[in-house]
Sequence to fold (97 residues):
Amino acid sequence: MTTRPCSACLQAIGFVRTPAGRATPVNPELVRCWVTDELPALGQEVFRVTLVLTDGRILRGYRALDGAPGARQVAGYVSHFATCTDAAQFRRPTVGV
Ligand SMILES: [Zn+2]
Fold:
């Protein structure tokens, strides 16, 4: 993955092309984890997982223990919008401009 500095926070970011043809900024480290679509049982901590898969699709689920029944292992990237220290600049309102 080729990277360039984020124009807002200067961290290295890469780009993944979505099925719609848009390039979405991601942190360049590939993340591997286990996820499940099932909301964990009451009393368990819930960790939401949102990853940009290598083919550009967005995966949303819940963090699962390695090898848990019904869970699957995925690999993807964390959207840079989620970690950019200056993400507000990506979310400027466009209404009224
Ligand atoms: Zn940034």
Summary: The beta strands are 3-5, 12-17, 23-26, 31-36, 48-53, 58-63, 72-77. The radius of gyration is 15 Å. The longest strand covers residues 12-17. Residues 6, 8-9, 11, 80, 84, 86 surround zinc ion (CB under 6 Å).
